[in-house]
Specification:
Length: 223
């Protein structure tokens, strides 16, 4: 098991560049719940970067998550959504409601009498392991999401799009930052969703894929 650690720095008001890209390799004897090595690696890298309480966004592979869609009546108050989603996640994971961690977001452009809401969840004990790991390293776990979500954020913002993903070294990547108007630059529309999906599929089983995911996580901090 290895973890990719990527940090971005603002290059100008439109672009961020990669300034840190590392592969943190687990010892052969470690497992998913034995994260002492990861805590040590984060602590060491945090010291090298200076300061304290670095913020960390993390992605988990699909095997460690459950995702789904829940349909709410349009008249259901939004304050009732968390309870309903929690029940859905607990049923999917076959755990008690207070034993799950979850997040959700309404799908855009939903029309009609129902609201489609996408949810994602995992065991709360699983999340506690990662929180303890980062806290022991002096870091703060700010957000957790799926690898697929982070990878898509990264490839959509990557300067040069699919071409850069397939031909450029990850340490040379640059990413477009959202403008204050949230307008999507014309250059971001060069590649079709199908082309991006194919390219992401090609790299996800390689070290480049891990760095794309980590870059997408770093971009989350700029949103």
């Amino acid at each position: 098991m290895a973890w990719a650690l990527v940090g971005l720095a603002r290059q100008n008001h439109e672009l961020a560049r990669v300034h840190t890209t590392l592969s943190l390799q687990a010892p052969a004897h470690s497992g998913l719940v034995d994260l002492a090595w990861l805590s040590h690696a984060l602590r060491q890298n945090g010291r090298l970067r200076g300061g304290f309480m670095h913020r960390l966004n993390m992605a988990l592979p699909a095997a460690h998550l459950q995702e789904g869609i829940i349909h709410f009546p349009a008249q259901l108050p939004k304050e009732d959504w968390p309870y309903e989603v929690q029940l859905e996640v607990s049923q999917a994971l076959q755990l008690a409601p207070d034993e799950v961690s979850f997040d959700f977001a309404p799908e855009p452009l939903t029309q009609g009498p129902v609201q489609r809401v996408h949810w994602i969840g995992c065991a709360q004990a699983h999340m506690l392991e990662f929180k303890n790991c980062t806290r022991a390293a002096g870091w703060r776990l700010a957000a957790v999401e799926s690898e697929a979500q982070a990878a898509w954020r990264g490839v959509r913002a990557l300067q040069g799009g699919v071409s850069s993903l397939l031909t450029q070294a990850p340490q040379d990547w640059q990413f477009r930052l959202k403008s204050q108007s949230n307008a999507i630059p014309a250059s971001a529309l060069m590649d079709s969703d199908a082309a991006m999906e194919e390219a992401v599929g090609q790299v996800m089983s390689t070290p480049t894929g891990a760095r794309l995911v980590a870059s997408g996580l770093a971009l989350k901090a700029w949103q």
